[in-house]
């Protein structure tokens, strides 16, 4: 469950994306975990995901399969700050789902690896369920890296990717103890 925004201000905030007011009408709480203040920046998680997918799709279309897609999912489009804690992790998990659904071809292996690398850095290792999701991400990343090596010309960029992937994996296992 997403954490509901604490102590809503007097004039009821609404979702800046669908413009509906809080949980009453939609059943979903408004969330916000960035630097937005007052009544700005509140949104439904599903609206945030839809919006991020829209921008992500556009960015990959414009910039190609090496675009750092996580930028569309992990920071607030209004104040540009990274989402915090649970919201950050929820958005990153939705990034993986998005990439798996829409970018499953070999040419997008890079995106598939990066979405997991960026997510595993934010796994709450104290949470058993999240930790096992993290372990699944590690397995998947390692197999994707093997495929990348097999199918692609191995470039400087790929070496940097590999280093960042292994460093994320090491951090994950260091944190899990
Ligand atoms: Zn909404
Ligand atoms: Zn914000």
Please explain how this structure is put together.
With 177 residues, this protein is mainly α. The chain has one domain. A two-stranded antiparallel sheet has the order 1-2. Helix 2 packs across helix 4. The chain is globular, with a radius of gyration of 17 Å. The two termini are 26 Å apart. The structure holds zinc ion (2 copies).
What distinguishing features does this structure have?
177 residues, globular, mainly alpha, 2 strands
Short characterization:
This protein is mainly α and 177 residues long. The chain has helices at 23-26, 45-63, 70-74, 85-102, 109-120, 128-151, 156-176, and strands at residues 30-31, 43-44. The protein has 7 helices and 2 strands, in the order αββαααααα.
* SS element count, helices: 7
Cofactors and ligands: zinc ion
- The coarse overall form would be globular
Average pLDDT works out at 88
Straight-line N-to-C gap: 26 Å
Tell me the fraction of residues in β-strands, as a range.
Answer: under 5%
Question: Which SSEs are present, and which pair or pack?
Answer:
Layout: H1 23-26, E1 30-31, E2 43-44, H2 45-63, H3 70-74, H4 85-102, H5 109-120, H6 128-151, H7 156-176
Antiparallel strand pairs: 1-2
The structure holds zinc ion (ZN) (2 copies).
One zinc ion binds at residues 15, 17-18, 20, 43-44, 47.
């Amino acid at each position: 469950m997403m954490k509901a925004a604490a102590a809503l201000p007097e004039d009821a905030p609404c979702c800046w994306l669908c413009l509906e007011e809080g949980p009453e009408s939609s059943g979903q709480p408004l969330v916000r975990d960035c630097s937005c203040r007052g009544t700005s920046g509140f949104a439904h998680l599903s609206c945030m995901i839809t919006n991020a997918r829209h921008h992500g799709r556009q960015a990959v279309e414009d910039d190609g399969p090496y675009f750092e897609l996580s930028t569309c999912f992990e920071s607030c489009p209004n104040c540009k700050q990274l989402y915090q804690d649970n919201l950050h992790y929820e958005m990153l998990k939705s990034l993986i789902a998005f990439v798996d659904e829409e970018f499953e071809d070999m040419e997008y292996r890079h995106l598939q690896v990066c979405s997991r690398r960026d997510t595993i850095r934010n796994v709450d290792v104290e949470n058993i369920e999240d930790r096992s999701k993290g372990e699944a991400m590690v397995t998947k990343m390692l197999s994707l890296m093997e495929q990348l090596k097999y199918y692609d010309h191995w470039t400087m960029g790929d070496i940097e990717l590999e280093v960042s992937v292994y460093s994320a994996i090491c951090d994950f296992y260091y944190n899990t103890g």
